[in-house]
Amino acid sequence: GASTPLVEVNGIEVIYNHVILVLKGVSLQVPPRAIVALLGGNGAGKTTTLRAISNLLKGERGEVTKGTITLAGERIENLSPSDLVQRGVVQVMEGRHCFAHLTIEENLLTGSYTRSDKGEIAANLDKVYTYFPRLKTRRTSQAAYTSGGEQQMCAIGRALMANPRMVLLDEPSMGLAPQIVDEVFHIVKDLNAKEQVTFLLAEQNTNMALRYADYGYIMESGRIVMDGKADDLASNEDVKEFYLGVG
Ligand code: ATP
């Protein structure tokens, strides 16, 4: 029904290397077409939460040992990362991860590996260039020679090539100048409004994230300690004192 979250995480625990309990019962909901921010400092567990949803924990020797994760009401814990891409769930990892020796356009095309329709791929590429005109300008440049902001845009653009309905965005502001962060978030907001892409974004930059998100969750030591509408969190005295100085 209308109230079914697109993604729902319910009481998950995550353990790394069979011993280190990192998520201690995390629950959150991402409504369809929302932008939800997952906030908190270094090591709070934001990346681990995103990896749990997109099933990228295995490579890190991590596993979900308790709780459930659903996509539009269906359990997804046992789907592989590429099954999840097929179902429209794509993660943009922290640190951008463009292929340094490929051009921007070649990087973008690697994002359509689940697609085979050439017309559709071309249309997706056009769409990415509409939202990221900078990438169009730089499309024949090797990623290694583009700016940090352009590489972040390239990483998001590559995710969009899979035609996702849900993008998990890990720390998009990392290492970028405030003006560039604004530009990236502005495009995220635009994609959300015009393409109905749902976003769950992990951010240490509380200020910026709350300016663009609809709803926020704050994590500390593997737990959600506070959540609320972005405007309410931004004006909350505790949030101001403990988090708004950050980033
Ligand atoms: P950051 O912004 O630094 O990425 P975060 O909030 O995303 O922080 P996580 O990366 O999820 O936090 O890390 C949560 C905890 O899990 C930290 O204590 C971290 O040291 C630990 N951790 C993360 N990855 C692993 C791993 N592969 N093996 C063991 N412990 C890990």
UniProtKB/TrEMBL annotation:
Matches recorded under PROSITE patterns: ABC_TRANSPORTER_2 (PS50893)
SUPFAM superfamilies in the cross-refs: P-loop containing nucleoside triphosphate hydrolases (SSF52540)
Record SMART domains: AAA (SM00382)
InterPro entries for this protein: AAA+_ATPase, ABC_transporter-like_ATP-bd, BCAA_Transport_ATP-bd_LivF, P-loop_NTPase
Domain ABC transporter: 7-246
Species classification: Bacteria, Pseudomonadati, Pseudomonadota, Betaproteobacteria, Burkholderiales
Record-linked PANTHER family: ABC TRANSPORTER SUBSTRATE-BINDING PROTEIN (PTHR43820:SF8), HIGH-AFFINITY BRANCHED-CHAIN AMINO ACID TRANSPORT ATP-BINDING PROTEIN LIVF (PTHR43820)
Protein name in UniProt: ABC transporter ATP-binding protein
Gene Ontology biological process: L-amino acid transport
CDD domains: ABC_TM1139_LivF_branched (cd03224)
Signal peptide range in chain numbering: none
Superkingdom, natural source: Bacteria
UniProt GO molecular function: ATP binding; ATP hydrolysis activity; branched-chain amino acid transmembrane transporter activity
Family: Belongs to the ABC transporter superfamily.
UniProt entry keywords in alphabetical sequence: Amino-acid transport, ATP-binding, Cell membrane, Membrane, Nucleotide-binding, Transport
Name of one Pfam family that matches: ABC_tran
